[in-house]
Amino acid sequence: MNLSTLGIGYVAIGTAVAIAAAAVRRCRTASDAVLLVGLWPLWAPLAFARPTTDHRERELLAALARAQASPLAQVLPDAESARVLAARLREASVRLVELDEVLARPDFDPALAAAATAQLRVRTLGQLRQLRERYRSELDEVDELIAQLVAQAELVRLQPSIAHTSGELVRELVTRLEGLDDLFAYQAKIDGGLAEYPAAEEHSS
User: Fold this and answer.
1) Which of 151, 153, 204, 196 is nearest to 179 (CA)?
2) Whole-Å CA distances, 139 to 62, 107, 142
């Protein structure tokens, strides 16, 4: 089997995946369809995995897919690593929403807690609020890095010779996403009543 045959088969599979995704409303835009045709091994499993996808996860996958089609491909994580990072980002986004909902409840007001319950509960509420702000801060940083990656991918298309300078940006994005595990672990400790809030790590921009 020669390369041209493999290429035709690859595009055919991608086209079939895009059509199927459109049929079940997992592919909502023309850009999604193009990404599915060209990069279906990365995009398709995530497109079909859930009825909805977190907007940050979608933006990350779209940024990686576009960068994959540029000279930046050599410094990007592989498809499996990208799926793991996207899942971690989705989990952090979900947890932030959950924390916002919990801390908005009247019975989680710190003043009421101080008057009605022991100091331990007040401390736990403080930890939850700190955790929410850390999630928000980290996700804001990730949003900015994703935007930078999209812009860098477009720049590298015009100037392929600068692709090697983009490795630091990709490493920073991956480091931020991997660092979300520390927040997940801290949240688990809060649930067990054992947490001490960790100092925020400094990341280079």
Assistant:
1) 204
2) 17, 27, 5
Q: Which positions ≥6 away from 184 have C-beta within 8 Å?
A: 91, 92, 95
Beta carbons of 143 and 58 less than 8 angstroms apart? no
pTM score, whole prediction: 0.65
φ, ψ of residue 111 in degrees (nearest 5): -65, -45
Rg (alpha carbons) of the chain, rounded to whole number:
21
| Dist CA 63 CA 178 (whole Å) | 17
Cα–Cα distance between 46 and 44 in angstroms, integer? 5
Tell me the domain boundaries of the chain. Answer: 1-40, 53-191
Q: What does the pLDDT read at residue 149?
A: 92
| Single-letter amino acid code for the residue at 144 | E
Cβ 115 vs Cβ 151: under 8 Å: no
Cβ-contact 99, 135 below 8 angstroms = yes
77-109 residue pLDDT tens: 888 898 899 999 999 999 999 998 888 877 666
177-190: pLDDT as tens digits:
999 999 999 889 88
Q: Which DSSP state fits 22?
A: H
Which residue, 197, 198, 193, is CA-closest to 120?
A: 193
